[in-house]
TrEMBL record:
Residues 37-169 form the DUF7910 domain. It comes from the Eukaryota. Keywords: Glycosidase, Hydrolase, Signal. This is Putative glucan 1,3-beta-glucosidase A. GO terms for biological process: actin filament bundle assembly; cell migration; establishment or maintenance of cell polarity; polysaccharide catabolic process. InterPro entries: Actin-crosslinking, DUF7910, Fascin, GH, Glyco_hydro_5. It holds the Pfam family Cellulase. It comes from Senna tora.
Length: 489
């Protein structure tokens, strides 16, 4: 135990699987076809009443057309069927459907919900009509009800109750969710080939050689839960990720690099954002026994397949669960069971816990909250993601924040962590500083590495390769922003 514990790793994120930050260029295909992506939130305003369609009570009732500016239930999340056809999901998670010709939101089973074709006046216009699966157009009636009973339409006049104006709504700071679900479902029949090309070319053996040369001794690989079902992953995912992961283990062994497996996208999504492969922003992880059971099966799949591999260093159970949607209780129940499963295959592989995030600044759970759990089990690590999400203008303010505030937090962590190790599992050189000089960017990187080096499980950078340079470790090294000598030691 001792030897491994004093072995201070420097870790690095390898974006082997294309989850959000490592967006393949093919993502542009989707951008052109917007809003044809899963999870986009849309409001429909009737041109006649100038009110929005909304789900009465948020769902479980009629769709009505009486929503004004203050209405909270006028958000419809798209589930893409094909380029123009969608299911609509309302705030309380029911799907929009028909009872006779009346439009309602009562079913929770997507396969039993109705589909709607969105017919746009033209690509650049906000005017649309909605055609229901019964072949009729929706109309906003004067009595506030919505019905699908108009057979023929003409023109786009402002007195036509079948015409709506659409608005795309920003949710969690994004208008479009751009994750694996959107990408693969959006690519449709082309997904298998395009994704395979990406898996074959994005990370290759040469990357492992380069990492070794740069002094990197481990990679943290983000995984989607569907990899456990390869070669027949469920809709909309395509096969190929398991082979890519096998390759990573082969190359890691050859080049002396350790691997940390990181369940980045768990069944049902643990945070609702793109990188957890959420379909429409909803967070279903941990809500049912079946869901936790399925996640444990996924962990068992990876533990069994790679548990005896000499390059396996640790398994991270659940990346960035979101507070308060994911409860501490569900994390604890799941983590104890997962730890037990991993120990069946490997007595000393580290089991890593990622702290809960919150999107609400003033209501963030303590970053110490997982230490009691971690300390009740053996070979455990607590992972914190330290990004610079400050809106400081001056570069020096960011650098000072690292040197003062992060240093203080690190000291606190290292004096209260107990047996569990501390890991800065994600950081980057992204910041909001205005007009920084190259020297300042270098100092920013250097200051971060100095502080994160103190973490007794090490750190990893998000990510190895990225189109956005400040999130690309490779680019930052190759362009002299990050000094290799600081990593090598
Ligand atoms: C949803 O409906 C379909 C078709 O009726 C059925 O086969 C399926 O079992 C239902 N799923 C759930 C979760 O109820
Ligand atoms: C950083 O620490 C300083 C000094 O203790 C404090 O005044 C400041 O509010 C902290 N900054 C942030 C963003 O927490
Ligand atoms: C990266 O950071 C530098 C320095 O802050 C900035 O000048 C540059 O615009 C950023 N690049 C990208 C692609 O964000």
């Amino acid at each position: 135990m001792g030897n491994l514990r004093i072995w201070i790793l420097k870790l690095l994120v390898l974006a082997l699987l294309p989850i959000s930050q490592s967006t393949p260029s093919h993502m542009n295909i989707q951008k052109k076809a917007k809003p044809a992506v899963d999870g986009t939130t849309i409001q429909f305003k009737s041109v006649t009443s100038q009110k929005n369609l909304c789900a009465n009570s948020g769902g479980g009732d009629f769709i009505v057309t009486s929503c004004d500016e203050t209405c909270e239930f006028d958000h419809f999340r798209l589930w893409r069927v094909n380029e123009n056809t969608f299911r609509f999901r309302v705030p309380k998670n029911q799907f929009v459907g028909l009872e006779g010709t009346v439009v309602v939101a009562v079913v929770t089973n997507d396969t039993e919900s109705a589909t709607f074709e969105i017919i746009r006046e033209s690509q650049d216009s906000k005017l649309v009509r909605l055609k229901a699966s019964n072949g009729y157009y929706l109309q906003a009636r004067e009595d506030n009800s919505v019905t699908a009973d108009v057979k023929t339409v003409s023109g786009w006049g402002s007195s036509d109750p079948t015409v709506f104006s659409i608005t795309f709504v920003e949710v969690n700071m994004h208008v479009y969710i751009e994750g694996d679900f959107q990408l693969q479902n959006g690519l449709g029949s082309k997904a298998a080939q395009i994704m395979q090309e990406h898996y074959d070319t994005f990370v290759v053996e040469n990357d492992f050689e380069l990492m070794r040369n740069y002094g990197i001794n481990a990679v943290r690989i983000p995984l989607g839960w569907w990899t456990a079902y390869d070669p027949n992953p469920p809709f909309p995912f395509v096969s190929g990720t398991l082979k890519a992961l096998d390759n990573a283990f082969t190359w890691a062994k050859k080049h002396g690099i350790k691997i940390i497996l990181d369940l980045h996208a768990a069944p049902g999504s643990q945070n609702g954002v793109a990188h957890s492969a959420s379909r429409d922003g909803s967070i279903e992880w941990g809500k049912t026994y079946d869901n936790i059971q399925q996640t444990l099966e996924v962990i068992e799949f990876f533990a069994e397949r790679y548990g005896k591999h000499e390059s396996l260093y640790g398994i991270e159970l659940l990346n960035e669960p979101l507070y308060p949607y994911v409860t501490l209780k569900s994390i604890e129940d799941y983590s104890r069971a997962a730890h037990k499963i991993i120990r069946k295959y490997n007595p000393t592989a580290y089991v890593i816990f990622s702290i809960r995030l919150s999107f609400v600044d003033l209501d963030v759970p303590s970053y110490m909250e997982l230490f009691p759990l971690a300390n009740s089990l053996d070979y455990t690590v607590v992972d914190l993601h330290w990004y610079n999400l400050l809106d400081y203008i001056k570069p020096q303010e960011h650098i000072d924040y690292i040197k003062v505030n992060r240093t203080r937090q690190m000291t606190e962590l290292l004096s209260n962590n107990g047996e569990a190790l501390v890991y800065i599992g994600e950081w980057s050189c992204f910041w909001s500083a205005q007009n920084p000089t190259t020297e300042e960017l270098k100092e920013f990187a250097k200051a971060q590495i100095e502080v994160y080096d103190r973490a007794n499980f090490g750190w990893s950078f998000w990510t190895w390769k990225n189109n956005d340079k400040n999130w690309s470790f490779k680019w930052l090294i190759e362009n002299g922003i990050i000094d290799v000598n600081q990593i090598k030691r």
